[in-house]
Amino acid sequence: MSDLENTTAPAGADATTRTTRVTKDNVTIIRDAENPDMVTIRTRKRKKRSKKKGLKKLTKGQRIAIIVAAVVLGLAAVAGIAAAVLVNSGNANLHLASAPLEDAPKDVKSADTGDTLEYKGHHYVYNDNIVSVLFVGHDDESNYVTVPEGTSCADAIVLVALDTQTKKAKAVMIPRDSYVYVDVYQGNTFTETQRMNLLLSYAVDVETENQRAENTVKAVSRIFYGVPLKYYLALDEAAVADASTAVGGVELEALDYIPGAAYGPGDTVLLMGEDAYRYVQYRDINVYESALGRQERQVQFVKAFLAKASANGAKGLVDLYNGVSDEVTTNLGASEVSYLASVFASGGNADLKVTQLKGETKEFADDNGVVHEHYYLDSDSITKTLVDTFYTKVD
After folding, report:
1. What is the pLDDT of residue 179?
2. How far apart are the first and last CA of the chain?
3. Of residues 160, 150, 189, 156, the one with CA closest to residue 175
C-alpha cells in the first residue's frame, strides 16, 4: 500500500457499508459515511530494529574496553568538577576575609571606613580584588635569651598580596629586626603589648604554632595601620631543603660566600637540599646588619624558586605544597590553596615584584650585655608600600 491511499465503497453498495479509508505511515483511518463522527483507527506494527546491531559486531574485549573508557572519562569529569568547586570555594573564602584598613597613616586623608585615601595629591580606593597571605619562615635563634625553650623566631617575613582580577602578585619583605609593637603572652595568657623586634612575635609563650603565627600576623597588620590580614603560612626553614629538591633545584648567581659551600660570589649555582637551606639561612651574627644582607639572598632565592615552581602550573604548586605540608602551619584550607595556586600560576608571576620596607638600624645591648639590632621602619616607606599594594589610584 502506498504512503497515502483513499479507498471508497463501490457505487451501488449499501449506504451503511460505504466508508472512506485513508492510510499513511502504517496508520489506517476509516470513516463511516453514515456516521461521520465514528472513526476507526488501525495501526500496523513495525518491524523492530535491533539497537544492539553495532555492538554485535564488537568482540567481548572491545566492548569491555569501551565500558572502561567511559568509566575513566566519567571519573575525570567528576574530578574536574570537584576541582572547580574547590577553587570557587577558595575564591569566596579568601575574598570574604578582605576589608578596608582600620586606621590611616598621619600623612594620608582617609574616609572613616578607610576604603578611600588621598595620598600626595592623588585619590585611591581600596582594591577589593586583593587577597593576602603572610608567609613566615621560622628558625631557631638561641642567641635571644628571651625565647622560650622549644620555640623559634620569625626569620623571614613576606607579605604576599595577590590581585585576583589581574592575576598579578606583589611581595613585601619585612625585616625581621623591625622594631614594632608585639603582643606578649605568659603561659598562654595575654599580658601586654610591647615594642620589640618582629622576629620575637613568633617566639611568644603560647601553646600552639597557629597561635604563634597569628601573633606575627597581628604585629604585621599593626605595621600597615590595621590592614586586614587573616591568612598565614608558617614554614620551618629546614623545609627549604625539601622544597628546592622537589622542583629540581633553584638556579641563581650567588651573592655571598657561604661557609662550607663549593661556590663563591658571582658563581652560577643550582641549589637544592641542604645547600639551598644554608643559602637562605646563614648569616654571620658578628657582622653589622647581617640580617639585611641575608634578606637580599632570601629575596633572590624566593623569586628564583617561584619562577621554577610556577612553571609546572597550578597542579605543580599544589603538589609542592602537599610535599612540604608536614613542615607547614597554616589556616589555609584545601580550597584556598587550590584557588591561590590556580590564580598565581595563570598570572605570569615568574618575575615576582618584591619590595622591602626601608628603615634605619640601631644597636642596643640587653641586660646580659648581648648586642642586638633594632630596625626602625621609615613611615614614608610603610605608607607608600601600603598604598601601592592594597589600593588603586583613581585620579
Report:
1. 95
2. 84
3. 156
Whether the predicted pLDDT of 12 surpasses 70 = no
DSSP 223-282: HTTT----EEEEEETTHHHHHHHHTT-EEEE--S--TT-S--TT-EEEE-THHHHHHHH-
Cα separation, 131 vs 113, in Å, equals 18
Q: How far apart are CA 341 and CA 219, in angstroms?
A: 26
pLDDT in tens, 332-355: 877 777 777 777 777 666 567 788
Q: Rounded to whole angstroms, how far apart are CA atoms 389 and 158? A: 13
| CA-to-CA separations, 23 to 11, 20, 27, in angstroms, rounded | 21, 10, 6
In three-state secondary structure terms, 1 is coil
pLDDT digits (tens, 9 = 90+) for 19-43: 555 555 455 555 566 665 555 555 4
The DSSP 8-state label assigned to residue 158 in this structure reads E
Question: Model pTM?
Answer: 0.67
Q: d(Cα 83, Cα 93) in Å, to the nearest integer?
A: 15
**What's the number of CA atoms in the CB half-sphere (13 Å) around residue 325?**
12
3-state secondary structure of 389: helix
Mean pLDDT of the chain: 74
Residue 249's contacts (CB-CB under 8 Å, 6 or more residues apart) are 270, 271, 272, 276, 308
* 211-235: burial string, b at 16+ Cβ within 10 Å, e else: ebbbbbbbbbbbbbbbbbbbbbbbb
Say which residues have a Cβ less than 8 Å from residue 274's Cβ, sequence separation at least 6: 241
The pLDDT of residue 131 is 85
